[in-house]
Amino acid sequence: MTDDTDTDTDDPENQLERTPGKGRTPDARPIEPHAPEAFGLTQVWWGDGKGKTTAALGMAFRAAGHGYRVHLLQFMKGGASSVDDVRGEYNAIEAMPGLSYENTGHYGWHGFLDGSEDGEHRAKAQGGLERARDLVDAAADVDLTEPLALEGTPEEGMHMLILDEVLYAANRELIDPADVISLVEAKPDDLELVLTGAHERPEYVVDEADLVTNVRKERHPIDAGQRARKGTEY
């Protein structure tokens, strides 16, 4: 005699109903404040290829689209002669609920003969480090398992904090690599911390990270003299 009570478990439709998306085609919905269920990792994105900041921005928009609060703090990305005085991502961030940014960079790029002062780059990077500490402390003062106001300030906490080019600043000794480790150690358990930058492997922080991605270059148009292009690089 057989038991027919579980005969529907092999039915594809029933199997789909047990998946998170229930097999339905995703669609766009209004963005309302929510709290992530599984945030709290440290991510490292490094390498000599294009796409580290782009990947981080993609995650930022995805998280904000779920109603999570996200903040982007950029190191070393001030103005440059090859870039207009506006970046497309800033315009998009302004239009996106729950996503904010700030830039602590200095004109030009450290170590380049572009008229900028390396001392100013160091001072700006140190200022960015202090701001990052303040933001991590702010996140530790709120309950990140609860929704946060989408239009709230970074001082009121965030579920994801992206420190863009912080690894480049550390590798160029504008900030102490030990201070980057301190940020990771100080972050609250539920804060997703994303660190980007550096062409050289950031050995000092790799063992502290939960996700490490090496963005490798095989070919880049800059090597053939192509300048930064609006809509792809800025």
From TrEMBL:
Name of one Pfam family that matches: CobA_CobO_BtuR
Region (Disordered) location: 1-34
Acidic residues bias (residue ranges): 1-14
Compositional bias of kind Basic and acidic residues: 15-34
Spans traversing the lipid bilayer: none
Protein name: Cob(I)yrinic acid a,c-diamide adenosyltransferase
